Amino acid sequence: RINYDGDLSDLIDQIADEYSLGRVLSYSVIEMGFEDFNIKLETTNSKYVIKIFSKDRTDAQIKRFVETIKNALDYGVNHPRLFSTREGEFIFAITPSLQLIVMAYVRGKTFYDLSRTPTKDELLMICAEAVKINSMDYEPEYIFDSWAIPNMKWMYEKTKDHLSAEGLSLVQKAFEVYDSIPLSDLPKCF
Asked: Fewest Cβ atoms nearer than 10 Å: which of 32, 46, 89, 101?
């Protein structure tokens, strides 16, 4: 994903030094994820996530990603804090094709991992965050996102040969529901 050839320990030490994160105690690769290479880092100061961007991301995409997080934080959206380098930059470019950011680590699990649906109170919290996001006065340049819900048919065409019969059936049912939504009548916002 990142085309890095070298000792990961040396890279982690360099990042911890650049962001003044403290002495490295441990780190591990976060297996969940598709494009970027994410690492959980524990130092003498705290726990962090290092997001090393995929070698396929452009400078513009990386800058857009960081600007989106900064805007979300400015609007009070509950998102892990971004850390800056010694020079006050959020993005650290070790090489032109090896760029990263550092965020606070948030301990938790997805509802999928918990094998349950959200409670009413949790749904209210999620809705409150959605309201903050949808209130943002922010219009970033469009970037095609293969994982975005409007592109799920595109992703399905790329992956359908890898789905089981049950998976295919579930996807078809999801498409039926999705196709019934009057998307053109819905308001648009970030």
From this structure: 32
